[in-house]
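If you are new to this repository, start here. Below is one unmodified record pulled from the training split, so you can see the exact layout before writing a loader.
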Amino acid sequence: MMPYRLGLTGSIGMGKSTTAGFFVAAGVPVWDADAAVHRMYSVGGAAVADIAARWPQALSAGAIDRSALKKIIVADPTALTQIEQIVHPLVAQDRADFLAGCTTDIAVFDIPLLFEKGTEADMDATLLVTAPPALQRARVLARDGMTAAQFETILSRQMPDVEKRQRAMHIVETLSLEAVSTYVTALIAYIREQRHA
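And here is the target side for that same chain:
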């Protein structure tokens, strides 16, 4: 029986990584889209050769330098689409391999742009992590090297939280660790109950 696929998403600073951690602690495996891309950009990664062939200046010590890629994207508006054409099929394959190797009844897919890229169609359900805008902003600006301008740029690329709320099947507000932990435990139990009903 294929695992139940739960798509986990949320805008920057909403508490997605923390929420994913509670699933892992409960024995539910989590596939992380950002981590998959990171592996593909690392030495020997699946995307290195193709990206380096097109943008040699992005290659550094056998890996793709993400800060160099950002500069390329700023300089050339078409670069992002070209990079996505290389990376997205590789990410989709990585996700499929993870699912094929799952032996648990539930698998979580941590995908920041779940709704933006239409990936929710591949899921059995979606879970949105959210928080009030002021809390989100405070969390993000507390990160090393993050500026208000960078935060606004990232937000502009993400679907507004209010729209995500309308599309998500499940929603958790990440106001406290205890509340999120309790919610995750309850959601796992609910999914298992539904599957075996």
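Two things worth knowing about this chain: The beta strands are 4-9, 30-32, 59-60, 63-64, 106-110, 125-130, 170-173. DSSP finds nine helices and seven strands in the chain.
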